[in-house]
Specification:
With about 180 residues, the protein is mainly alpha-helical. Helix content is about 85%, strand content about 0%. The chain is globular. The termini are far apart.
């Protein structure tokens, strides 16, 4: 087990911790764990890229799964508790289900689609991270950024829709080709 994989596993373990903190209403602590998870994501990536023998296939799969698990959990719990719009959480989760569903269908059709993150998808992830950080900071640290959080919510929604459309377009072209 490589050091980056151990860090990523710790980030996966942080997911239920963040969920419990959110459900308990301790938003400041949830924000702190979220920030630590974000820093650990950068650290494990740097180690994997710059230290010989630390990059692994498991890490290439586990790292984005850990990131997605944390973000989706935050969106779902904050929406379920009334702190974020339910429609936004449904949109974010639906996009991810759509992508995973397309991958599964392509595997079942014996035509596995290559999993390559698109630039719009990376922008979408950054927007989701910024939204979650702003909202958690607003809730836990009283930053009073309601207007900025609302604007970022709309940015996330737009990027989520464009990203979903780009993946569907690419998937259809791949499956028909």
């Amino acid at each position: 087990m490589t050091i980056p994989n151990l860090i990523t596993l710790a980030r996966l373990i942080a997911v239920p911790v963040v969920i419990l903190l959110l459900l308990d209403g301790t938003f400041g602590w949830a924000f702190a764990v979220f920030v630590i998870a974000g820093i650990s994501d950068g650290v494990d990536g740097a180690i994997a890229r710059h230290v010989p023998g630390q990059a692994s296939e498991l890490g290439r799969l586990l790292d984005p799964a850990a990131d997605k698990a944390l973000l989706v959990s935050i969106f779902v719990v904050l929406a379920a508790t009334g702190h974020a719009p339910m429609w936004l959480a449904v949109l974010v989760v639906s996009r991810d289900v759509l992508i995973v569903g397309g991958v599964i269908v392509s595997w079942l059709a014996s035509k596995p689609v290559p999993i390559v993150p698109l630039l719009i998808s990376k922008a979408n992830t950054v927007a989701q991270i910024v939204y979650a950080a702003l909202l958690l900071g607003d809730l836990g640290l009283a930053w009073q950024l309601t207007s900025l959080v609302d604007i970022m919510g709309w940015v996330v929604a737009a990027l989520t829709l464009v990203s979903a459309a780009a993946y569907v377009k690419g998937w259809l072209a791949f499956m028909q080709g």
